[in-house]
Specification:
153 residues; alpha+beta
Length: 153
């Protein structure tokens, strides 16, 4: 009887340790979708602060070919602050959706394992309150998630 009790205790302890290890691994390993979404969140935090230099750095290299850093900084400030008369905005992020493949524009290469996140920005400015929704796409580049916009027509 004592052998059965000792064996039962060992099994319980082993099961408890296994469950704890699995929980720790799950806690330490964040899903790729959550990692991608956190890059979008960082991008819009920079944009809220008017730190367009750092938000530009989160672009995929194919996006950086669309406009130089200087042009991006100037355009973002000009459009949102000067034209719309807004100082900042709030935003919400949708759930990341994994796409098997996607391309930024018709002539761009097809990218695999891309995530799409819907962003809704709310502005209050000279022309009242308005919302802007945009789907943001993320692909890995040199091991990091990078942001792209859709230029397909």
């Amino acid at each position: 009887m004592r052998k059965k009790t000792a064996l039962f205790k060992r099994l319980l302890i082993g099961l408890f340790v296994l469950i704890m290890i699995l929980m720790a691994v799950r806690w330490m390993v964040v899903s790729p979708g959550k990692n991608a979404k956190s890059v979008v969140d960082q991008f819009y935090q920079y944009e809220q602060e008017g730190d367009f230099s750092n938000s530009w750095e989160l672009f995929h290299s194919s996006m950086k070919k669309k406009f130089t850093k200087g042009n991006y900084i100037q355009d973002r400030a000009h459009v949102f602050v000067n034209h719309f008369g807004v100082k900042t905005f709030s935003y919400t992020l949708g759930k990341p959706e994994k796409l098997k493949s996607w391309r930024m524009e018709k002539t761009a290469p097809v990218l695999k394992n891309v995530y799409k996140v819907l962003v809704k920005q709310t502005y209050k400015g000279r022309y009242g309150r308005f919302d802007l929704e945009q789907e943001i796409y993320l692909a890995k580049e040199n091991g990091d998630w990078k942001i792209m916009w859709d230029y397909n027509k």
